């Protein structure tokens, strides 16, 4: 399938009440596993990179690998830039071939957030068929270079959500509802009512902006399914895949360090990642939708 942006796949997911997994990768092995899982599960999928790996590998290199992988899948695959606070780097990734860009100006005051997000949305829409995700409210924890401490956490103001989407022109909306980045140290305090209200305001009559859930790692299956049922149609999973990569690497090397066979190490990481993603696709309900 040719490369795809997130809009169509997420409109479809919102209509059918399932969610597309958006999986953060830091290596080509993980990227291959994400796409292979999608093919095996007959699912749409979103490959995400944070800013640091995007800079490390270079956006052009990641986009080229993504294009080759997407061509090999019969189902839609997107490449998404996660939590980028720098409009110029957002634009570079859009130019390089990312199909979705998240501009995260959520730590800025409302008017400035609107201004920065709109600048990126306008650029991406002018450049090509590139969709944009914006965030209102702040998500607790650390995601790459974006760090939000307890004192900075602010849930999304539902009365501002419609205005934010309308004025920025974004395609996909991430409201802060109490989920967090990283590993949950205690039961997360998710405001389901708030999320339901935002879903009703934005997508109750017609679907204006599919909704994104950040901080998927560590949520129980029950909480995940509830958020999907309320309209979360893009579900971000990052920390879990970092753990899977490191644990699979550690597990393999513990018994095979002196084999000096990196191909087998890659295979171990691939298998563990594949399994984790297949599990998510089942819970999110995206499996078997194509
Ligand atoms: Zn996030």
Amount of helix: 40-55%
Question: How would you sum up the major sheet?
Answer: 8 strands, parallel
Q: Which small-molecule ligands are present, each listed once?
A: zinc ion
Biggest β-sheet: strands ordered side by side in the sheet: 8-5-4-3-2-1-10-9
CATH superfamily: Aldolase class I
CATH topology description: TIM Barrel
Taken in chain order, the helices and strands follow as: HEHEHHEHEHEEEHEHEHEHH
Q: Report the total helices.
A: 11
* Distance between the first and last residues' Cα: 12 Å
Describe this structure as you would to a colleague.
The chain starts with 5 loop residues before the first helix and ends in a 6-residue tail after the last helix. The model has no long low-confidence stretch (mean pLDDT 95). Helix 9 (221-229) links the parallel strand 9 (211-213) and strand 10 (232-237). It has helices spanning 6-16, 28-41, 51-57, 59-72, 87-96, 110-127, 158-168, 192-203, 221-229, 239-256, 262-284, and strands at 20-24, 45-49, 77-84, 100-103, 131-136, 141-143, 146-148, 172-175, 211-213, 232-237. It is globular, with a radius of gyration of 18 Å. It is an alpha/beta fold. The strands form 2 sheets. The chain has an 8-stranded parallel sheet with strand order 8-5-4-3-2-1-10-9, sandwiched between helices. It has a single domain (6-284), classed as Aldolase class I (TIM Barrel, Alpha-Beta Barrel), CATH 3.20.20.70. Residues 83, 139, 143, 181, 214, 236 line the site of zinc ion (ZN).
């Amino acid at each position: 399938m040719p490369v795809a942006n997130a809009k169509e796949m997420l409109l479809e997911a919102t209509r059918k009440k399932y969610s597309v997994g958006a999986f953060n990768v830091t290596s080509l092995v993980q990227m291959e596993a994400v796409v292979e899982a999608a093919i095996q599960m007959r699912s749409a999928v979103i490959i995400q990179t944070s800013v640091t790996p995007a800079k490390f590998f270079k956006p052009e290199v990641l986009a080229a690998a993504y294009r080759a992988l997407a061509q090999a899948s019969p189902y839609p695959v997107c490449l998404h830039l996660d939590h980028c606070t720098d409009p110029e780097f957002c634009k570079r990734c859009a130019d390089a071939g990312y199909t979705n860009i998240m501009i995260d100006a959520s730590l800025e005051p409302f008017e400035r957030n609107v201004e920065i997000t709109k600048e990126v949305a306008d650029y991406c829409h002018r450049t090509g068929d590139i969709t944009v995700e914006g965030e209102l409210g702040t998500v607790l924890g650390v995601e790459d270079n974006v760090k939000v401490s307890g004192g900075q956490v602010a849930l999304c103001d539902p009365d501002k959500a419609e205005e934010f989407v309308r004025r920025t022109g974004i395609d996909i909306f991430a409201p802060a509802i109490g989920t967090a980045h990283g590993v949950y140290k205690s039961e997360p305090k998710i405001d389901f009512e708030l999320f339901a209200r935002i879903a009703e305001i934005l997508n109750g009559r017609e679907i204006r902006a599919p909704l994104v859930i950040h901080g998927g790692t560590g949520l129980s299956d029950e909480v995940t399914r509830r958020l999907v049922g309320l309209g979360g149609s893009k579900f971000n999973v990052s920390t879990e895949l970092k753990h899977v990569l490191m644990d699979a690497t550690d597990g393999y090397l513990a018994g095979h360090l002196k084999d000096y066979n990196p191909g087998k190490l890659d295979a171990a990481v691939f298998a563990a990642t594949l399994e984790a993603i297949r599990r998510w696709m089942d819970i999110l309900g995206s499996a078997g939708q194509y």
